[in-house]
Write a structure and sequence with these properties.
- The chain is mainly β.
- Strands 27-28-30-33-32 form a 5-stranded antiparallel β-sheet. A 4-stranded mixed β-sheet has the order 29-35-34-31, with no helix packed on it.
- β23 and β24 form a beta hairpin.
């Protein structure tokens, strides 16, 4: 019979049972149940002051103004002042079983409350005409107007000579009664509140840069344009830079100015492959001669005289390759090929036996000359193809020492810039970070689908 002796332990006996009760409970007269023991009714009482019976135990408590001791039975006086258990506004005095309140100087005691003496109301001119009186609990403060400070008495205000101290005026200071005045240079204005010179934001509200972006600087402003444009105040905005007319024109074979940039041309028979590379190959003339070239991209001798190879209108001081009189009359074309798609090449093995190159590659940018190498990155597992560098600066794709069999070969060719870290840093120091993006051009990456047959 579970729970037979609640709040105790059931002990079985022959024909009956009895309960052994827990502390704080009694088995009464029958001995078969445990009931709560009222310790507060015992004599002597377990508590010296107040006793409250609880289920299975009891609690001792103290009257107001006393605190229960660690023994849990006795009480001692509570120091409300040191334990901050009082409602005194200022001074607290402990008493047996309670406390009393007192008022400090500057207050008037009214029964049990402290009333502040308002010195500012009682004496209207206490701080003079240059200060305001601020009442505080038990006292008062004099607050001087801006430009004045309190003297030794604490109630009189004298003028502050801001020019003799840290006035922060960069262009002259004039002391005034209650303040000072700063002189401001060009590009600065006087702050409406601080009375000092602050930078004037010329870009706010005024179209000083026109179509260019305006950036405020300390004492001035700066008009900036995107790469390939220069700011011209006379034109009221950004104007395209004709890179082809500058002495630092980077193109080796011809230059065509574009809006915000330029395009480098290639020698006759070559095609632009991205920005900075020229490419030609066996069968390219039929493949790209008419379909891949727009009329606007073709440079004629009449329309683009500055593109003549070795012409007098080339860049000053630039080394040019030695060419014959016939080559002097050639023009440069901006015809381009799409390097994003695969380039098909249908070639005869018999045609290539005289070591005619399959492909010729050439850098079109002057900084890339002798600083770029073209390599086969994929598709040459059998070493059937190789790229050789010639003295004239061209790189040619030829058959390797192991002649390939007829079939389809998929090659990927890429360019590797050979600039070292010091050279790149030197170019950035001489120009800027955009120079590496424009003047060195993009890395070349083309895919060739070469179909070789015997005939």
């Amino acid at each position: 019979m579970p729970n037979l002796c609640k709040n105790g332990q059931c002990i079985n006996s022959v024909g009956s049972f009895r309960c052994h009760c827990n502390v704080g409970y009694t088995d009464g007269f029958t001995g078969t149940s445990c009931v709560d023991m009222d310790e507060c009714s015992q004599s002597p009482k377990p508590c010296n002051f107040l006793c409250k019976n609880t289920e299975g135990s009891y609690l001792c408590s103290c009257p107001r103004g006393y605190i229960l001791q660690p023994d849990g039975k006795t009480c001692k006086d509570l120091d409300e002042c040191s334990t901050k258990q009082h409602n005194c506004q200022f001074l607290c005095v402990n008493t047996i079983g309670g406390f009393t309140c007192k008022c400090p100087s500057g207050f008037t005691q009214h029964q049990t409350a402290c009333i502040d003496n308002n010195e500012c109301s009682n004496q209207p001119n206490l701080c003079g005409s240059r200060a305001s009186c601020l009442n505080t609990p038990g006292s008062f403060n004099c607050e001087c107007q801006k430009g004045f400070s309190l003297d030794g008495t604490g109630i009189n205000c004298d003028d502050v000579d801001e020019c003799g101290g840290n006035h922060r005026c960069q262009h002259g200071c004039q002391n005034m009664l209650g303040g000072y005045r700063c002189g401001c240079p060009q590009g600065y204005v006087q702050h409406y509140q601080w009375n000092q010179c602050v930078d004037e934001n010329e870009c706010a509200g005024n179209q000083v840069c026109g179509s260019a972006s305006c950036y405020n600087t300390l004492g001035s402003y700066k008009c900036t344009c995107p790469s390939g444009f220069d700011f011209e105040s006379s034109a009221g905005g950004c104007q395209d830079v004709n890179e082809c007319n500058l002495n630092n024109n980077p193109c080796s074979y011809g230059c065509s100015n574009t809006d915000g940039g330029y395009l480098c041309g290639c020698p006759g028979g070559f095609y632009r492959a991205g920005q900075g590379h020229c490419i030609t190959g066996v069968g390219f003339q039929g493949q790209f001669g008419s379909e891949g070239v727009d009329d606007e991209e073709s440079l004629s001798p009449e329309a683009c005289y500055e593109c003549k190879i070795n012409g007098d209108l080339g860049k000053k001081g630039r080394h040019r390759r030695n060419t014959g009189d016939n080559e002097l009359k050639e023009t440069v074309s901006l015809a381009s090929m799409d390097v994003q798609t695969s380039i098909p090449m249908n070639l005869s093995l018999a045609q290539l036996q005289n070591k005619e190159p399959l492909l010729e590659l050439l850098p079109a940018l002057e900084p890339l000359e002798h600083h770029v190498r073209y390599v086969i990155t994929h598709g040459n597992q059998g070493k059937h193809f190789r790229i050789l560098e010639r003295r004239d600066g061209k790189s040619v794709l030829r058959l390797g020492r192991k002649p390939p069999s007829p079939g389809l070969y998929r090659l990927e060719i890429a360019s590797l810039r050979l600039f070292g870290p010091r050279k790149l840093q030197q170019m950035e120091d001489q120009h800027d970070s955009d120079y590496l993006l424009g003047e060195i051009g993009d890395a070349l990456r083309i895919k060739l689908h070469i179909h070789l047959h015997r005939d």
